[in-house]
Specification:
Layout: E1 17-29, H1 38-46, E2 70-82, E3 86-90, H2 97-104, E4 112-117, E5 120-121, H3 127-136, E6 137-140, H4 154-164, H5 172-182, H6 199-211, E7 217-221, H7 229-246, E8 249-254, H8 257-263, E9 266-271, E10 274-280, H9 281-286, H10 291-298, E11 349-352, E12 355-357, H11 367-370
Parallel strand pairs: 3-8, 3-9, 6-7, 7-8
Antiparallel strand pairs: 1-2, 1-4, 4-5, 9-10, 10-12, 11-12
Helix pairs in contact: 4-5, 4-6, 5-6
Length: 380
């Protein structure tokens, strides 16, 4: 097998890459709980690590040179999204998916790392470049009921981004009506309030608002999780149609792997702030490598009572993102762990062409032990 290389060091195709994330980190100061006991607070502060770069903050409630604890929501994530591609980011709740989305659109400032759009780094101090990027990057929020202002008409909600980016006032009404028709609604619906629409219709309105300024990338944060099963397929087919007709790229944040398999071009699995596996659609679902990815896939129900899938139940508690375990962060719940797992931190390396995995079973550092372990796919 050819020598494996890290994802961060791989040369990306500048002509095809729309968005590039390089070693992105976001640390949040941990808030003190009023219900925590004195023993809990002392135990946490004994495990303190140095503060992240440029964010050294002293905790005034404790004496000495102790520093504030940080929740490592995103800790060294790198990936790229190509033009006219649906890139899916999956993982358990709290693994950092939405935090990445908020940093991309500028709602959160990264602790460190780079966000490049069309080769230009997003700099919060460069207002002109930031405004241009915000026009090209829009977001669809998870809850269609809270993402629309109940006091505004639908037409006014959709026309707000048009006004923000200088769209001619006399052409806004026609543009709003055109967008409503594109997403499967009627032009006369522009005068109605959000309460007059169902959940699926509200999400179509959210899609129309995201399309208003002709973005190149749309971040869809759980766009169908709040909708009925019968409505989900309609929204997903709408996204696929927009991708084909307008060459729009999507960053899809999801929990439903069966939906991801239907719509995504590439899939990245996150665990505790890091990507543990990244591959194209067929490579991920046909030859899943990481034990955590296999556990996620084993939880996907099969719509056939005659077929059964072996369920992999993860035992143990979720690690603390303030003080993650040493070595591999998944080793405390991994069914295939061995002696090196709690000592060596695996890097995201290319195991097969285009298929990256952060696991000592497949990394060079774990090559000697690989022959004695069953490294096959855990899910049939």
């Amino acid at each position: 097998m050819e020598a494996m290389i890290t994802l961060a060091s791989r040369q990306l195709d500048a002509q095809n890459s729309l968005l590039t994330i390089q070693d992105l980190k976001k640390y949040f100061p941990a808030k003190k709980s009023h219900f925590a006991t004195r023993r809990d607070r002392i135990r946490n502060f004994r495990r303190i690590e140095p503060s992240p770069p440029n964010e050294t903050v002293s905790d005034n409630s404790y004496s000495g040179d102790r520093k504030r604890l940080y929740v490592k929501a995103v800790d060294g994530v790198s990936f790229s999204i190509n033009r006219s591609e649906i890139f899916a980011l999956v993982g358990e709740s709290g693994c950092g998916k939405t935090t990445i989305a908020r940093m991309i659109v500028g709602l959160l400032r990264p602790t460190s790392g780079k966000i490049l759009f069309q080769g230009k780094e997003m700099n919060p101090r460069n207002r002109k470049l930031l405004k241009q990027m915000r026009r090209n990057v829009q977001i669809i929020f998870q809850d269609p009921y809270s993402s629309l202002d109940p006091t505004m008409s639908i037409g006014r909600s959709i026309s707000e981004p048009l006004a923000s980016f200088g769209f001619p006032k006399g052409e806004r009404k026609a543009r709003v009506q055109q967008l409503l028709v594109e997403v499967g609604l009627r032009a006369e619906d522009a005068e109605k309030r959000p309460r007059e629409f169902s959940g699926g219709q509200r999400q179509r309105i959210a899609v129309a608002r995201a399309l208003a300024v002709n973005p190149q990338l749309i971040i869809a944060d759980e766009p169908v999780s709040a909708l009925d099963i019968s409505v989900r397929a309609q929204i997903l087919n709408l996204l696929l149609d927009l991708k084909d007709r307008k060459n729009i790229s999507f960053l899809l944040i999801a929990h439903d792997l069966s939906m991801v398999r239907h719509i995504a071009d590439r899939v990245a699995v996150m665990h505790l702030g890091r990507i543990v596996e990244l591959s194209d659609n067929s490579g991920f679902f046909e030859t899943t490598l990481h034990p955590y990815s296999n556990a996620l896939l084993s939880a996907v129900p099969i719509p056939d009572p005659a077929k059964k899938r072996e369920r992999l139940v993860l035992k143990g508690e979720l690690p603390n993102p303030i003080n993650p375990p040493s070595g591999c962060r998944f080793h405390t719940r991994c069914v295939k762990k061995f002696d090196s797992c709690d000592k060596i931190d695996p890097q995201l390396l290319e195991y097969n062409p285009g298929h990256y995995v952060a696991c000592l079973l497949y990394n060079q550092s774990g090559k000697e032990t690989q022959s004695t372990l069953n490294t096959g796919n855990l899910v049939s």
